[in-house]
Amino acid sequence: MRSANANPLRRRVFEAAAVVALMFVGTGPFEANAQAPSASSEVPDLSGIWKRAERREVLTPLRLNARAEALRGVLDERAYPKYDCVAATMPRIVTDSYNFQIQQQADRVLLMFEKDDVVRTVWLEGYGHPVPSVGEYFLQGYSIGRYEGAELVVETTKFTYDPHGFSDGSPTIASSQRKTVSERYWLDEGRLRVEVVTEDPLMILEPNRFRYAWDRTDEEWLEFACDIENSHTVLPFLTPQYGVP
After folding, report:
1. Is residue 38 included in any domain, yes or no?
2. Beta 151-157 vs 180-188: how paired, if at all?
3. 225 near 116, Cβ under 8 Å?
4. Is there a contact between 143 and 168 (Cβ–Cβ < 8 Å)?
5. I want to staple 60 with a disulfide (CB 3.0 to 4.6 A). Which of 75, 142, 209, 233 is the partner?
6. What is the pLDDT of residue 240?
7. Cα angle: 108, vertex 111, 115; to 5 degrees
8. Which range of residues forms the domain containing residue 186?
9. Does residue 173 sit within a domain?
10. What are the two backbone dihedrals, phi and then psi, of residue 101, each rounded to the nearest 5 degrees?
11. Tell me, what's the pLDDT at 80?
């Protein structure tokens, strides 16, 4: 019996079918990491320690819906997770005045913050990293990334509910498990810039967009080392809110 490859016309049909089949492999919501990294893409050098250079530039202001407004009206500051050393999350942590560090590795990028000793891992597409299951959520979310020309693009989902996910000022603004954050980092004459877009249909009326910038610094990287006992010492001095005695 002759094989299918012996007939040129039949061989072309099989090849075309194989191409079509490959187009539909790995199209699930977390299968972006099945893409092969582009060998021709230029990876920008974003590594180093960065110090705040400019104030936050708001492009689209934060507009709360009725649910978020109601939560803001009932959360008492003395119950805020930050006083139990619970770390800050995106998007608010990126504009903190503490220094920020990027470490670029072959298959991942580490985004590190002096604030709360936070380390975010960005899993680069194309390396077969494990993905979260349907019911898994994380304080810092699950981040995947890719390089688009001279930019690093980061997309984060799977956040836990966070009582101060948008703001830890008084009163706080909470975020939900539906929160998603997209970041785009690039260099502008040596200055590191980012544009951040945050969506949360359970809490805000439209995507919140802002930009931020840092300059390189050779300052020593400091450990935050939050201590719960020390953090609790401020609680008796906080003003009771919303009728809480």
Report:
1. no
2. antiparallel
3. no
4. no
5. 209
6. 63
7. 155
8. 48-237
9. yes
10. -135, 145
11. 85
Dump pLDDT digits (tens) for 157-210. 999 999 999 987 778 899 999 999 999 999 999 999 999 999 999 999 999 999
Reported as a single tens digit per residue, the pLDDT across 54-102 is 999 999 999 999 999 999 888 888 888 889 999 999 999 999 999 999 9
Residue 231: enclosing H or E segment and its boundaries? helix 228-232
Residue 160 falls within a domain, yes or no?
yes
Residues sharing a CB contact under 8 Å with residue 183, sequence separation 6 or more, in sequence order:
90, 94, 152, 153, 154, 155, 156, 194, 195, 196
pLDDT of residue 238: 82
Pairing verdict, β 162-167 and 173-175: antiparallel
Q: Evaluate whether 124 touches 111 at the Cβ level (below 8 Å).
A: no
| Residue 5 belongs to some domain of the structure | no
Within 10 angstroms of residue 199's Cβ, the number of other Cβ atoms is: 15
What burial letters (b/e) apply to 1-17, b meaning 16+ CB within 10 Å? eeeeeeeeeeeeeeeee
Distance CA 111, CA 104 (A): 9
Q: Would the pTM count as exceeding 0.90?
A: no
Q: What CATH number is attached to the domain comprising 198?
A: 2.40.128.20
How many domains in the chain? 1
Per-residue tokens: 54: 């400019």
120 closest CA partner among 148, 161, 155: 155
| DSSP 8-state assignment for residue 239 | P
pLDDT computed for residue 41 by the predictor? 57
Residue 208 region by backbone torsions, left for phi larger than 0, else alpha for psi between -120 and 50, else beta = beta
